[in-house]
């Protein structure tokens, strides 16, 4: 089901076109300085990454962290649960809680490649900025999925561009990065979807209780966990916890755990050259055959073949990461 009501459209004026061109130029210059091509481009700022693709891409399953994902050129879709959000040039996806989803590039070509910038959000700074707002946004009474799409206006675009330029001057990052991140938090919290985002920064809300359980789940995903254990961490009843967890992430707690296991197993096979059996046991599976069945069901390909498919991309990424270290 496509979710159009959460996608903000706006008339493009000359100012916004100039901002888009400036950001596109700045990001493209950075990519070319790293050798050009396509794929994932890390920066000197650990929380900032750039992606360029010359063609449409099949869905990639990930656990999305709290982040701001800006499309500079082209378009992308994110599928979470039964819903789909599409966002294009000078639009952004904001994810306010860790959640499993599939992202795919839907508009790209060699002449006009897809270009996106992903910035991890600093939750502590978000909370500090929220506390300083004269009129802070009020979280919705009934929170829905913790993801939305909005426009990238001039102030937000300028922040992204400053981060890209800053990454080319490593000594400036510790001094200047915090101020730019504070500014990003300000524009997001005072924007049209500030109410949804501020739930991430309100202590003892149901949102934050579920978030605590997710942190616990991420740290212990290889163990056998019960919903009651996670509900206790969240300080909620099992039934209330299960309801709020699925409402916010679009999956049940045990489905979330399974996806964490399978994604970590992929990382082990691709980055650490683990065998299928080694990866299965390390993430908590007792049966390699059950692991292979569930892996193939989630990713659409057998574990060994999937690892081979991703090793080239990882090798390219690791090489770029080494150059920025």
TrEMBL record:
<dbReference type="InterPro" id="IPR018062">
    <property type="entry name" value="HTH_AraC-typ_CS"/>
</dbReference>
<feature type="domain" description="HTH araC/xylS-type">
    <location>
        <begin position="211"/>
        <end position="309"/>
    </location>
</feature>
<dbReference type="GO" id="GO:0043565">
    <property type="term" value="F:sequence-specific DNA binding"/>
</dbReference>
<dbReference type="Pfam" id="PF06719">
    <property type="entry name" value="AraC_N"/>
</dbReference>
<dbReference type="InterPro" id="IPR018060">
    <property type="entry name" value="HTH_AraC"/>
</dbReference>
<keyword id="KW-0804">Transcription</keyword>
<dbReference type="InterPro" id="IPR009057">
    <property type="entry name" value="Homeodomain-like_sf"/>
</dbReference>
<dbReference type="Pfam" id="PF12833">
    <property type="entry name" value="HTH_18"/>
</dbReference>
<dbReference type="GO" id="GO:0003700">
    <property type="term" value="F:DNA-binding transcription factor activity"/>
</dbReference>
<protein>
    <submittedName>
        <fullName>AraC family transcriptional regulator</fullName>
    </submittedName>
</protein>
<keyword id="KW-0805">Transcription regulation</keyword>
<keyword id="KW-0238">DNA-binding</keyword>
<dbReference type="InterPro" id="IPR009594">
    <property type="entry name" value="Tscrpt_reg_HTH_AraC_N"/>
</dbReference>
């Amino acid at each position: 089901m496509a979710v159009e009501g959460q996608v903000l459209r706006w008339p493009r004026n000359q100012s916004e076109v100039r901002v888009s061109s400036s950001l596109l130029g700045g990001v493209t210059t950075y990519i070319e300085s790293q050798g050009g091509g396509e794929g994932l481009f890390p920066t000197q700022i650990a929380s900032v990454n750039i992606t360029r693709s010359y063609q449409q891409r099949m869905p990639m399953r990930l656990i999305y962290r709290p982040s701001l994902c800006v499309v500079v050129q082209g378009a992308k879709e994110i599928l979470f649960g039964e819903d789909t959000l599409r966002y294009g040039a000078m639009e952004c996806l904001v994810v306010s809680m860790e959640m499993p989803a599939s992202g795919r590039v839907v508009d790209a070509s060699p002449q006009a490649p897809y270009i996106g910038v992903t910035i991890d959000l600093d939750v502590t700074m978000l909370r500090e900025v929220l506390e300083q707002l004269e009129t802070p946004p009020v979280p919705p009474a009934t929170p829905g999925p913790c993801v939305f799409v909005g426009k990238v206006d001039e102030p937000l675009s300028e922040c992204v561009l400053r981060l890209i330029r800053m990454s080319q001057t490593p000594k400036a990052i510790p001094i200047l990065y915090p101020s730019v991140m504070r500014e990003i938090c300000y524009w997001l919290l005072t924007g049209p979807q500030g109410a949804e985002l501020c739930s991430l920064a309100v202590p003892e809300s149901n949102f934050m209780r579920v978030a605590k359980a997710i942190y616990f789940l991420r740290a212990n995903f290889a163990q056998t966990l019960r919903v009651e254990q996670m509900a206790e961490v969240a300080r909620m009843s099992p039934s209330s916890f299960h309801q709020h967890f699925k409402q916010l992430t679009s999956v049940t707690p045990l489905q979330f755990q399974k996806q964490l296991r399978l994604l970590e197993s992929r990382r082990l096979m691709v980055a650490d050259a683990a065998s299928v059996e080694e990866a299965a046991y390390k993430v908590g599976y007792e049966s390699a055959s059950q692991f292979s069945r569930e892996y193939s069901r989630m990713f659409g390909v057998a574990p060994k073949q999937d690892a081979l498919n991703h090793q080239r991309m990882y090798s390219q990424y690791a090489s770029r990461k080494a150059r920025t270290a």
